Amino acid sequence: ADQAYRDGADVWTGGRDGLWHYRDGRRERLVLPDYVTVKQFSALARDLDGALWVSVRNAGVMRLKDGVWQRGGGHKELEAPAKWISRGDKGRLWFGRSNNSIVVLDAGAIRSYGPENGLTVGETLQILDGGTDIWVGGSNGLYHFDGARFQRLLGEGDEEFLGVSGLIEYGGSLWLNSSSGITAVSKPELAMAAAKPGYRLKFRRFNHLDGLRGTATNSFPVPTAIVGSNGRLWFFKRNIHSVFKL
């Protein structure tokens, strides 16, 4: 499958064999609109109303509610294809696109962000909305959003954190899966950067010198980092699945 998404007991997968819903051991194929001619899924997410949002390569973003599909969920601004769709802690829906563009749907209101808001991420690969801090990872690095502007974060030695396709908040740190390897940045360091623009983050890096093989993918599937139920952090590399045990 190109994409898999889980929300509670519900699981959806999208791939060449179509869009499927799994629950309580049952598997159901969801009928796609006729205008979906290429079954390549880039993002799946569910909103607080229980509707499923889907981004398909040739058809763009669609919303499924009570068996009815709506392009862009009824919002023209949301119809363009999205590389990333996610629901934040407060119910906000984030749509990450290529060309330095992010759109958020919040309680029916739509806001768009781009370079004029400090966003130069290139292709958005993940948006992590924990309610207080919002982090964006993409082809051009790591960004923090304070509610008005995006701030690009750099590390010591002018480390750019390029190709961030996986973000995890765990154990008092923000973990990144990027083209340079696996990186951990502590919360105090992140707070320092937010308070002092231009501050260079101290970070821990795990790469081939630590026995880590492969590089983070920046295509399907994203995100490339997840927390397992046993407290292990999983980082996906090209044709390799790596596990980092704390």
Outline the structure in words.
The chain is mainly β. It has 1 helix and 24 strands. The protein has a 5-stranded mixed sheet, covered by helices on one side. Strand 2 (10-15) and strand 3 (18-23) form a beta hairpin. The longest helix is centred in the last third of the chain and has 9 residues, at 187-195. The model has no long low-confidence stretch (mean pLDDT 89).
Helices, strands, pairings?
Elements: E1 3-7, E2 10-15, E3 18-23, E4 26-30, E5 41-46, E6 52-56, E7 60-65, E8 68-71, E9 84-87, E10 93-96, E11 102-106, E12 109-113, E13 124-129, E14 134-138, E15 141-145, E16 150-155, E17 166-170, E18 173-178, E19 181-186, H1 187-195, E20 200-201, E21 204-206, E22 225-227, E23 233-237, E24 240-244
Average pLDDT works out at 89
Structural class: mainly beta
- Work out the radius of gyration: 18 Å
Number of helices: 1
Helix content: under 10%
**Could you state the order of secondary-structure elements as H and E?**
EEEEEEEEEEEEEEEEEEEHEEEEE
Distance between the termini: 29 Å
Query: Looking at the structure, what is the overall shape?
Result: globular
Question: Could you list the spans in which at least 5 consecutive residues all have pLDDT below 50?
Answer: none
What can be said about the biggest beta sheet? 5 strands, mixed
- Total DSSP E strands: 24
The fraction of residues in strands falls at: over 45%
The order of strands across the largest sheet is 13-14-15-16-20
